[in-house]
Write a structure and sequence with these properties.
Keywords: Hydrolase. Residues 10-55 form the Thioesterase domain. With 65 residues, the chain is mostly beta strands. It has no helices and 4 strands. A hairpin with a 3-residue loop joins strand 2 and strand 3.
Length: 65
């Protein structure tokens, strides 16, 4: 996989609920929604042990070749 230089054009994060600091596990996943020639769009989600959404974010990146 070739790494390309990029910069964020837009970044948005929604924090859905607070997270206790008692050692619970959080799981984060990221997905590429679109990877074009000059832009890419991705999203990420964080869920707690019970599968409840904790945070959700999206980003649009400009790719420099």
């Amino acid at each position: 996989m070739t790494k390309l230089p990029f910069t964020e054009d837009q970044l948005k994060v929604n924090y859905i609920r607070t997270v206790p600091v008692d050692g619970r596990t959080l799981t984060g996943t990221g997905t590429i929604i679109h990877a074009g020639r000059s832009t890419a769009i991705a999203e990420g989600k964080v869920v707690d042990d019970d599968g409840r959404l904790v945070a959700h974010g999206t980003t649009t990146c400009m790719i420099y070749r």
